[in-house]
C-alpha cells in the first residue's frame, strides 16, 4: 500500500485562513502586524526565501519591510539596523535570514533582536522558554512540523520519535516540542553511531540534515511517519539520475529551472516504506512560512493588543 502524503500546502492554507480572522480583528482596532525581513548578501536560496516570506505577508494583509544589505555589511551596521527595528512600533517581528556572510558574528546579532520581536525564535530567551516549557516564540519550522502531525491526526504521545539533526533552528527545538507532547525522543547527528539502527526504531522520523536522499528504505520502520525537513538543490544531471530511479520527470524539471529541490529522504523509497510522509517540495516548507506569519500576528497581539 502506498503511503499517505501529508500535504503541507493544504495545512498551511488552513492556518493562513485562521490567521486572516485574527488579523481582521487586530486591524479593526487599528493594529496591522508588521514584519521586517533582513537579507544580507546575495545567496540565491535566501533571496527566494525572503521574497516568499514578504509575499506571504502581502497576501495576508500584513505590513512588511524587506531590507537588503550588501555582502560586506559589518556586524556593527547590522546591530544598528536591528536596534532601529527594535524601536520601531510598526514592526512586530524581525527576521534575519540565515546564513549570514562569514564576517558577521551571528552569535552577537541574533541576541540583539528584542525577544518579543524574535519571530524566528532563535533568541536565547526564547530558546530557554522552549526548553522549560514556557510560552515564547517557537522556531517556525519545528512549530510547523507539529502542526502537520496534529492536523493529520498522527499521535505523538508515547510515540518513539527520532530527530536527525541538532541545529538551534530545527533539530533541537523539534526535539523539545516532541518531548513536550510526550514523545520518547532521540536526537541524532553526524557523530551518531549506526544511524540506521536508531532511525528504524522511530514511529515518527524527522530528517533535518541537509543531506540529499540520505534516508533510504533501510532507515525507515515500515509504516512510520517520515517528516522531511531537508531542502537541498540538485544542479547536475548525474546527481538527479543517481537519486531518482525513473529520472525523466526530474531531469525535465532540472532543465527547465536549472535545479531541483530534494529532501533528506529518498523520495521513491519513502512512498513504499512509510505510513505517511511529507513530500519535498510541498511538505514542511509551506508550514515554515505559515508559522512565521502566525508568530508575527502573535507578537503583534502580545506587544500591542
Ligand atoms: P545545519 O545547521 O547544517 O544542521 C544539520 C544537522 O544535521 C547537524 O546537526 C549535523 O550534525 C546533522 N548531520 C549532517 N550530516 C549528517 C549525517 N550524515 N548523519 C546524521 N546527521 C547529520 O542545518 P539546519 O539549519 O538544521 O537545516 C537542515 C536542513 O533543513 C537543510 O537542508 C535546510 O535547508 C533545511 N531547512 C528547511 C526548512 C524548510 O522550511 N523546509 C527550514 C529550515 C531548514 P552535527 O551537528 O554533528 O554537524
End-to-end CA span: 49 Å
The CATH architecture category of the largest domain equals 3-Layer(aba) Sandwich
Please provide the ordered H/E string of secondary-structure elements.
EHEHEHEHHHEHEHEEEHHEHEH
As a percent range, the share of strand residues is 15-25%
How many independent structural domains? 2
What does this structure look like?
It contains 12 helices and 11 strands. It is an alpha/beta fold and 305 residues long. The strands form 3 sheets. A 6-stranded parallel beta sheet has the order 1-11-8-7-5-6. Strands 3-2-4 form a 3-stranded parallel beta sheet, sandwiched between helices. A two-stranded antiparallel sheet has the order 9-10. Strand 5, helix 7 and strand 6 form a beta-alpha-beta unit. It is globular, with a radius of gyration of 19 Å. The protein has 2 domains: 84 residues, Rossmann fold (3-Layer(aba) Sandwich), CATH 3.40.50.10860; 146 residues, 3-Layer(aba) Sandwich (Rossmann fold), CATH 3.40.50.720. Bound molecules: NADP nicotinamide-adenine-dinucleotide phosphate. The site of NADP nicotinamide-adenine-dinucleotide phosphate has 26 residues, from helix 12.
What is shown here, in short?
The chain has 12 helices and 11 strands.
Secondary structure: elements and pairs:
Layout lengths: L3 E2 L2 H20 L6 E7 L3 H17 L2 E7 L5 H13 L5 E4 L9 H4 L14 H8 L8 H12 L8 E5 L6 H10 L3 E5 L6 H5 L4 E4 L17 E4 L3 E3 L2 H7 L4 H10 L2 E3 L6 H5 L2 E2 L6 H21 L1
Parallel strand pairs: 1-11, 2-3, 2-4, 5-6, 5-7, 7-8, 8-11
Antiparallel strand pairs: 9-10
Helix pairs in contact: 1-12, 2-12, 6-7, 6-12
The structure holds NADP nicotinamide-adenine-dinucleotide phosphate (NAP).
Amino acid at each position: 500500500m502506498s503511503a499517505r502524503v501529508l500535504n503541507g500546502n493544504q495545512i498551511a492554507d488552513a492556518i493562513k485562513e485562521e490567521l486572516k480572522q485574527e488579523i481582521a480583528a487586530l486591524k479593526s482596532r487599528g493594529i496591522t502586524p508588521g514584519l521586517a525581513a533582513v537579507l544580507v548578501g546575495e545567496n540565491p536560496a535566501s533571496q527566494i526565501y525572503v521574497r516568499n516570506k514578504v509575499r506571504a505577508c502581502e497576501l495576508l494583509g500584513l505590513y512588511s519591510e524587506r531590507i537588503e544589505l550588501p555582502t560586506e555589511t559589518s556586524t556593527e551596521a547590522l546591530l544598528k539596523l536591528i536596534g532601529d527595528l527594535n524601536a520601531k512600533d510598526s514592526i512586530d517581528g524581525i527576521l534575519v535570514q540565515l546564513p549570514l556572510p562569514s564576517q558577521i558574528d551571528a552569535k552577537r546579532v541574533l541576541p540583539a533582536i528584542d525577544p518579543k520581536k524574535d519571530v524566528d525564535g532563535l533568541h536565547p530567551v526564547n530558546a530557554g522558554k522552549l526548553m522549560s516549557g514556557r510560552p515564547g516564540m517557537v522556531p517556525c519550522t519545528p512549530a510547523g512540523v507539529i502542526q502537520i502531525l496534529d492536523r493529520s491526526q498522527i499521535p505523538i504521545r508515547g510515540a518513539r520519535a527520532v530527530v536527525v539533526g541538532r541545529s538551534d533552528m530545527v533539530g533541537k527545538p523539534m526535539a523539545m516540542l516532541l518531548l513536550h507532547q510526550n514523545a520518547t525522543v532521540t536526537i541524532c547527528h553526524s557523530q551518531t553511531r549506526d544511524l540506521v539502527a536508531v532511525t528504524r526504531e522511530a514511529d515518527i522520523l524527522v530528517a533535518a540534515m541537509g543531506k540529499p536522499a540520505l534516508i533510504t528504505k533501510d532507515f525507515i520502520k515500515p509504516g512510520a511517519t517520515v517528516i522531511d525537513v531537508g531542502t537541498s538543490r540538485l544542479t547536475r544531471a548525474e546527481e538527479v539520475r543517481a537519486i531518482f530511479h525513473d529520472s525523466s520527470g526530474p531531469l525535465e524539471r532540472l532543465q527547465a529551472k536549472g535545479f531541483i529541490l530534494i529532501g533528506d529522504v529518498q523520495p521513491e523509497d519513502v512512498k513504499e516504506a512509510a505510513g505517511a510522509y511529507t513530500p519535498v517540495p510541498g511538505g514542511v516548507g509551506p508550514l515554515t512560512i505559515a508559522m512565521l506569519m502566525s508568530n508575527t500576528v502573535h507578537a503583534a497581539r502580545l506587544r500591542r493588543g
